Amino acid sequence: MRAEPSCESARLGLTAEERHLLDEADNFAQRELAPLAERMDNEEWWPPGLMASLGRQGMLGATVGHEYGGAGMSLLQAGLVLQAFARWNPAVALSVAAHDNLCANNIFVNAGEDIRRRYLPRLCSGEWVGCLGLTEPGAGSDALGSMATRAVRDGDVYRITGSKLYITNSPIADVCLLYAKTQPGRGSKGITAFVVDTATPGFRVAQKLVKMGFRGSQTGEVVLDDVVVPVANIVGKEHEGHRVVMSGLDIERAIVAPIVVGIAERALALSVGYAKAREQFGQPIAQFQMVQALIAEMYADVAAARALCWQVLAECDAHGPGAAGRGDIHARSAAAIMFCAEACNRVLDRAVQVHGGSGYIWETEINRLFRTTKLLEIGAGTTEIRKMIIAGELLH
């Protein structure tokens, strides 16, 4: 069962090329990723070689230039791929977003030519898996101001000590875009971004975390014990990593939104199918007006979320990476992920209600989707932080 009829994309103004990309990614995900979803959720299992397989399909390095092995897509096009993936396997979509956007795209946009040449081709091919090392045990929403990880310069290298928590892909990562405080006492400033090989002595994953949702996407705690990183591996300018963080966070919020949309689309499709097939009192429950109301409300939320998500991605493309972290796009990207996440929460709540008892059973697909919803209101800045960003831009 497809998540949505293809005419939806036409109504919302996608080009023929974009519609084709969405359909092709959807077909691929239904064929290749959907069969993996149940085992990934049950066992918190990551399929060996999956990133390399996606790389061979040209589905990694979406927004990275062709000269580095990337696909050279727009952010909207990259979002459409993630949306299709999320319909059939949200865990893969989340890990690909972390690899492609949080790591590879940040390097492409902010790093110098030497780092790009050394790291991007292998990230785009899937030979290497990337992650982002930002959040810490004592710093979530205030990730910059409360950062405790320290990097001390020692000649041509930095020595990094500290820890990072809730790091998507860290148990399987080869490369980490890592943030550390290089000038203590400067609050949210005085931070530097580094590209770190995870095989570097002192870099270790202390534990793989067991999660409620997106269970196949590997998440861990990283401990850094005197990790030596060359100064040549600095991304952006020394002591100005906060600029890299802020530009990346806006794009992250915009690019996570289509994952949310894909999950909501699939939940709607499953609920429509279930309502038509499930019979009670001698007729399909689709004939009951209260079930019809739930389906109608879900449809409206999915349509609105999709439209805002695509619009903001297109705006991010038009503004370019230099506009992120401030101004209208700062508020718009926060609004997109906030609305999409809250809409998805409503959609999944109604979807489980339509499914009744079967929706409450762990092994069902709708239950697996339901367990993804809360992360979407927490990751990439909580709903409360998103509201503060929007209000701050409107009221300053």
What's a quick, concise take on this entry?
The protein is of the alpha+beta class.
Write a structural description.
This protein is of the alpha+beta class. It folds into three domains: 7-129, Acyl-CoA dehydrogenase/oxidase, N-terminal domain (Butyryl-Coa Dehydrogenase, subunit A, domain 1), CATH 1.10.540.10; 131-239, Beta Barrel (Butyryl-CoA Dehydrogenase, subunit A, domain 2), CATH 2.40.110.10; 242-395, Butyryl-CoA Dehydrogenase, subunit A, domain 3 (Up-down Bundle), CATH 1.20.140.10. The protein has helices at 7-11, 16-43, 50-56, 75-88, 90-110, 113-125, 241-277, 289-319, 327-355, 365-370, 373-376, 383-395, and strands spanning 130-133, 150-154, 157-168, 175-181, 191-197, 203-208, 219-230, 234-235, 279-280, 283-284. The strands form three sheets. A four-stranded mixed β-sheet has the order 1-4-5-8. It has a four-stranded antiparallel β-sheet with strand order 2-3-7-6, covered by helices on one side. It has a two-stranded antiparallel ribbon with strand order 9-10. The longest helix has 37 residues, at 241-277. Residues 3-7 have low confidence and may be disordered.
